[in-house]
TrEMBL record:
It is found in: Membrane. It comes from Shouchella lehensis G1. Belongs to the transpeptidase family. Its EC number is 3.4.16.4. The chain crosses the membrane at residues 12-32. This is serine-type D-Ala-D-Ala carboxypeptidase.
Length: 726
């Protein structure tokens, strides 16, 4: 018994130790797992979270871009991606069963060839794919396109919600606003790219258990962070006028390229900016021109530069209006071709003032080489901001280059050849002339605010130089006004009724393959102007390169179509009243005081005004309304509108009417006016004699009627001139 009991005790001790060993191992393992939270390299916490937790994205929004008045120019809107489910495991009706039928119906909607879509679906199915995407054209679809696809009720075609960048105005300041790229490997352009650090947003998330409760609200909710909103200095109404006019010129003249800028002369704010070719940022992969010519295109500007040459000469005391010089041709030196005016024979001995109005190259070269001196001249150009970038808050800006190598370079730079400048440099320099000598830095970003309303960045006016005195600036403005108003001035096409415009035309030769182009229309035509004359508020620059012109047309035709439209809209929307003083003076000299004919018989009223330009609207027996009213001074050739009491009213023949006259009539008859062009009416729709009622639409097209003899083409500089030492 004793022996048996001893064996039993030994066994018990062994078992005890075995148990204790297993217990220690288990406890150690449990402790190890508790500490490391890993089993065979697997993170138990992550596995648990994956099994028992779910997360959901809280979407954020990219910041919007708006104009100075808050009108949205770029924003995020809902979009949809197409997914094609190919796995038969999803059950009947939940995957694509008939590939050919699906491709035939879906391909036209997502802009794919039927064969291409068929191949994509077939390859995906052969590779055993669960689902596939259908390429770039199937992504970021609009709500309307999504509805169209859903109406097809195609088995296996799913739509995934996302967001896309939307530009509500389509082709509208496109090179300024830019485009948000849908390809992560390709950067965004314009302000969308430059300001991405502000505009970009960060999605949030929310995590919850499968049991439907949050584990820890504070730790499991990450709030989304929306992008900052950007407000620009652009004015949508002025920009729209610019875009419309440029599109019209593009249609009628098919130029190689165009640029236009409108700026506030007092602050430097950019009110509008556009180029052609342009693009619709809603359409990806269709951009023909990525360059913002307004800031990136450094070209020989032509005669627009003359205003700064003249300003320098006035400031130094070398320019007197009544001084005279011999026009026509000017010898530089023995090694260079002479400088010639647009009229190589010249206009004889003319005054400096007339030389500016006629855009004389000879005068400019003489001022620099004989009076100012080459070095002081270049110093003034640098003081005006040429040869260095303006620092505007846009990408791609070029600095241009002042050519200083030879005497001939200075002579030709004086009238806008050889040296290069950008449109934005010209606009900045022009603010000094408009603003009493103070040159304003251009800027386009007014304010950037985060999603809580905190201002992150703010634009402000900055004087970046005073190259000339206020007295010199006023003198230059006087001369530039004459360019537009004098009978021999080159800028007659820019003499807008009721708006005192001043400025300088330009016709720059285009350098290509070591020489300059020649021939009608083979130039860069431009105008740099401002208004109103006494105290300019707006500076506008327009250039049109190589337009298709008929023999009767000048380069001023397409340029003035844009400039005049932009200037007129600027006057209206910035509450700058048209200058009626000239109209009143003309009426005093050649007009009459309007009599009252309201209530009179129509026949009597027309007899009373028989030698006037009377327009009778309606077939009534008596006059119900008249415009102008009694006692108003009226020009002899100004239309007098007499509205009769008859129910039936027909449109009059408005050919030859100014836009101002058309507006009077449309206001009286309560018509919706849609006009294009500038100057005087040459076409109308409906045609004269068509019955019309309140609220109906009237379309008119206006064109300039400036006499041919004062339309100086100003293909000056140098249509006959070539550089022998270029």
């Amino acid at each position: 018994m004793e022996i048996k009991r001893a064996v039993t005790n030994k066994r018990a001790v062994v078992l005890l130790f075995l148990f204790l060993a297993v217990f220690v191992v288990l406890v150690g393992r449990i402790a190890y797992i508790q500490v490391t939270k890993e089993v065979k390299g697997n993170d138990l916490v992550a596995m648990a979270e994956e099994r028992y937790s779910r997360s959901e994205v809280l979407p954020s929004e990219r910041g919007s871009i708006s104009d100075r008045h808050g009108s949205v120019l770029a924003e995020d809107i809902p979009a949809y991606h197409v997914l094609a489910v190919l796995s038969e495991n999803q059950g009947k009706g939940n995957y694509i069963e008939d590939i050919e039928r699906t491709a035939e119906q879906l391909a036209p909607i997502i802009q794919l060839e039927v064969e291409e879509l068929t191949r994509m679906l077939t390859d995906g199915k052969d590779e055993g794919r669960y689902q596939i995407e259908l390429g770039p054209t199937s992504r970021y679809l609009s709500f309307e396109t999504k509805e169209t696809i859903q109406d097809l009720k195609l088995p296996g075609i799913q739509l995934e919600e996302a967001t896309r960048r939307y530009y509500p105005n389509q082709t509208f300041a496109s090179h300024v606003i830019g485009q948000k790229s849908i390809n992560e490997d390709i950067g965004s352009i314009g302000l969308e790219g430059r300001l991405d650090e502000f505009l970009a947003s960060t999605d949030g998330s929310i995590e919850y258990s499968r049991l439907g409760r949050l584990n820890s609200p504070a730790e499991n909710i990450t709030l989304p962070s929306d992008g900052a909103s950007v407000q620009l200095t652009l004015d949508t109404r002025i920009q729209a006028s610019m875009e419309q006019a440029m599109s019209q010129v593009e249609l009628e003249f098919s130029p190689e390229k165009m640029t236009a800028i409108a700026a506030d002369a007092k602050t430097g704010e950019i009110l509008a900016m556009s180029n052609r070719p342009s693009f619709n940022p809603n359409q990806h992969g269709q951009i023909e021109n990525y360059l913002n010519y307004a800031v990136a295109d450094a070209v020989e500007p032509g005669s627009t530069l003359k205003m700064f040459t003249v300003a320098a000469a006035i400031e130094e005391g070398y320019f007197q209006d009544d001084h005279y010089f011999q026009s026509g041709e000017y010898e530089i030196d023995l090694h260079s071709n002479p400088v010639r005016d647009v009229n190589p024979e010249g206009w004889g001995e003319i005054s400096y003032e007339e030389g500016v109005h006629r855009s004389s190259n000879v005068l400019m070269s003489k001022l620099v080489l004989e009076d100012l001196g080459i070095e002081p001249f270049y110093q003034y150009l640098e003081d005006f901001g040429f040869s260095k970038s303006t620092g505007i808050d846009l990408s791609q800006e070029s600095a241009g280059k002042l050519e200083k190598g030879r005497r001939s370079d200075a002579a030709r730079t004086a009238f806008g050849q050889t040296s290069t400048m950008t449109p934005i440099q010209l606009v900045q320099a022009a603010t000094a002339i408009a603003n009493g000598g103070k040159m304003m830095k251009p800027y386009i970003v007014q304010e950037i605010k985060d999603d809580e309303g905190k201002v992150l960045q703010e634009g402000s006016s900055e004087v970046v130089g005073e190259p000339i005195s206020a007295e010199t600036a006023a003198h230059v403005r006087d001369l530039l006004r004459g360019v537009v108003t004098e009978e021999y001035g080159t800028g007659r096409k820019y003499d807008i009724q009721g708006v005192d415009v001043l400025g300088k035309t330009g016709t720059a030769q285009i350098a290509e393959q070591g020489g300059y182009l020649n021939g009608h229309g083979q130039y860069l035509y431009s105008f740099l102007g401002m208004a109103p004359y006494e105290d300019p508020e707006i500076v506008v620059y327009v250039s049109v390169t190589k337009p298709n012109l008929t023999t009767e047309q000048s380069g001023n035709d397409p340029v003035s179509m844009i400039f005049n439209a932009v200037m007129q809209s600027s006057m209206v929307y910035l509450d700058l009243e048209p200058n009626e003083e000239e109209l009143l003076e003309e009426a005093e000299e050649s007009g009459f005081d309007m009599v009252n004919v309201v209530g009179e018989r129509t026949t009597y009223a027309t007899e009373l005004l028989e030698d006037k330009k009377v327009i009778v609207v309606g077939e009534g027996d008596r006059i119900d309304y008249q415009e102008p009213a009694e006692g108003v001074r009226v020009l002899n050739d100004e239309p007098i509108l007499l509205i009769t009491d008859g129910e039936s009213r027909a449109l009059p023949d408005m050919r030859g009417w100014s836009r101002r006259d058309v507006l009077k009539m449309t206001n009286i008859l309560d018509l919706e006016l849609d006009y294009s062009g500038n100057g005087y009416v040459v076409q109308q729709s409906p045609v004269a004699g068509t019955p019309i009622s309140e609220g109906e639409a009237l379309q008119v097209h206006l064109e300039s009627t400036v006499p041919e003899e004062v339309e100086e083409m100003e293909e000056e500089q140098d249509q006959t001139e070539t550089e022998d030492d270029s």
